[in-house]
Amino acid sequence: MAFEGFSEQTIDFLYGIFFQNERLWFAAHKDEYLTHLQRPMKALADETFQRLTALYPRKDLVCRVARIYRDARRCRGINFYKESLWFTLQPPAEPGQDYPCFWFELGRETWSYGMGFWMPSAATMARHRTAIDAAPQQLGRLHARLLTQAEFLLEGERYARFKTGAPPDLAGWYNMKAFSLQHESIDVTETFDGPALVERLVNGFSFLMPYYDYFLPLSQAGQPRQVP
């Protein structure tokens, strides 16, 4: 299935699941979910993955589309269904490992894409700071490159207590508890043009690839496997 773009019906469904986040409503609108959200998201993920891996054939990436269902064991007092949907392009990882990944996410009022970590471990972020201490010029070059464009911003949670020791231009990176390089837009109609969106994601992920390459070896998934 070629990705032709999302639509007003996609956004209508996302508003619906926001206001009626319960099983009876979802059961009555499941065909809308499959037609206007799940299948287009899968098509976008597949096309972006194929284009990116053709450009970087030596990258070991896997493509995963999120499920809209939340874990039923964790749904006490919260909604049964997610109110946005996303896909990730990520390295193979063992359960529980952290890793950098590329992502695209669509919500009812915003969409975003980029590269970053979701809940990196304290050990991973300690390796990140150690890498800056040992060779600040490596991340310094990537930081300078980031400043040459306007598509992606460095976002994320910072430590409550400021950590000193980094060069001034890298202090923001040094004090990240979790981070992403992301673009977020409040114009969801930008996702309605399928070819333009695929092109934007492929170009954006290509720009972000050096950052992924820098952070993967620092992550748990990028650490050498222990031989028994």
Q: Characterize the main sheet.
A: 6 strands, antiparallel
* Residue fraction in strands: 5-15%
Q: Fraction of residues in helices?
A: 40-55%
**Would you count the extended β strands for me?**
6
So how many helices?
A: 7
Distance between the termini: 44 Å
Coarse shape: globular
Radius of gyration: 19 Å
Are there runs of 5+ residues with pLDDT below 50, and where? none
Question: Your description of this structure?
Answer:
The chain is an alpha+beta fold. It has seven helices and six strands. The chain has helices spanning 8-19, 23-28, 30-55, 122-134, 136-146, 171-174, 194-215; strands spanning 62-65, 85-90, 100-106, 111-117, 153-155, 180-185. Strands 1-2-3-4-6-5 form a six-stranded antiparallel beta sheet, covered by helices on one side. A hairpin with a 4-residue loop joins strand 3 (100-106) and strand 4. Helix 3 crosses helix 7 (194-215) and helix 4 crosses helix 5. It is globular. It starts with 7 loop residues before the first helix and ends in a 13-residue tail after the last helix.
In short:
With 228 residues, the chain is of the alpha+beta class. Helices cover 41% and strands 14% of the residues.
Features:
alpha+beta, 228 residues, 6-stranded antiparallel sheet, globular, 7 helices
Q: What is the element layout, followed by pairings?
A:
Elements: H1 8-19, H2 23-28, H3 30-55, E1 62-65, E2 85-90, E3 100-106, E4 111-117, H4 122-134, H5 136-146, E5 153-155, H6 171-174, E6 180-185, H7 194-215
Antiparallel strand pairs: 1-2, 2-3, 3-4, 4-6, 5-6
